[in-house]
Amino acid sequence: MLAGQDSARGHDRADLDRLGSRRPSLAARFIAGALTPALVVSALTLFVAIRHSPGWTAGVGWACATVLLVVGAPYLVLFRALHLGVVDDRQVVRRSQRPALMAAALGCVAAALALLVVVGAPRALVVLVLAQAGGLAAMTAVTLRWKASMHLAVAAGAVAIAAMEVPVCAMTALLLPLLGWARWRDGRHSLAQLAGGAAVGASTAVAIYGALR
Q1: Which of 7, 141, 156, 183 could bond 198 through an S-S bridge, CB–CB 3.0 to 4.6 Å?
Q2: Interval 17-31: pLDDT, tens
Q3: Which of 34, 18, 29 is nearest to 193 (CA)?
Q4: How far is CA 205 from CA 161, 179, 185, 201, in A?
């Protein structure tokens, strides 16, 4: 156990050193802010909900309710953790601080999934949230041993799902290198962490949403 804790601290130091060595970039922060996981998940949820609801007003309603559950609730957990000093910053640079927070977020998404099933949400929306839960579970498992980019995991998963819905949406994959550059430029992740996050996000999205939609 002590060896594992020492290893986690070593990885934390490497991540903090990389972050501290980079000069701030307004362009990188703007790109990362525009493509933050919360916004990407919200946009994808709205897209899927409208496509699979009887009307756009119903779709917007389902999307708002879903985003409140799968984005709003986990962010409340994050803000509470920040208030208590459990995590150091909103982006949770230290890998050692991520697993517990991600497990709590997974619990929120699982509860949201159960509620959506009970109230009769559109099947595609339920499958979308199931895919999000699967991706978060995979990222939580990876984070126990290694740090991967959540930004790239969410973005790559969203691109995969959007492309399965409307093939032309595959062009949004052009945003992934841009987002990867922004996270690398700000020192948030190494290239390997970026590639790892994208691989986890895309593969779980295809495996779950592709099989069940």
Answers
A1: 156
A2: 777 778 879 999 999
A3: 18
A4: 6, 19, 27, 6
